[in-house]
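Apologies for my clumsy wording, but can you show me some protein sequence, whichever is easiest, together with the matching structure tokens, please?
=====
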Amino acid sequence: MQWNRREVSHEPVEPEQDHRIGQPFDRTDGVLKVTGQARYSADNNDAKLTHAVLITSTIAKGRIASIDTSRAQALPGVRLVMTYQNAMRLPNGGVPDAQPPAVRKLTLLQTSEVRYSNEPMAVVIADTFEHAQGAVRYVDISATKARYRTPTISACGPRISRRII
């Protein structure tokens, strides 16, 4: 496959050479936008469409001690609050059928273990984005924090002087 490359001039364009600079131009959607009649992707409300909001960890390493989704699940418009307790199990424990170096274990909502900061711990699925966002406040998650050690320091071995740490 060959790419078509155009020669790009790095010379500055003088305003008098480019007739577009400083001149108004018509936007095809300008009138619709300023009058409030433009349609955006968020305006497409399909009855089958659902919206999701992730709840992520605030710790770098640890374990989820408890999750209570009952209050969020009872709210109007909430279809499901998915956690590691009710998420579908990935085939092969999340390990893909691939050869190294492409092998990476998928861990999304599979165990109570927290492996990194901002790891998804739950996802709220609702009829509208607003319902999903609102229900997030009613999911109670308690996690225990574990000691986190940066792997790059320990992977360097004894050649690294401990004085620099």
Notes: DSSP finds four helices and six strands in the chain. The first strand starts at residue 51 and ends at 56.
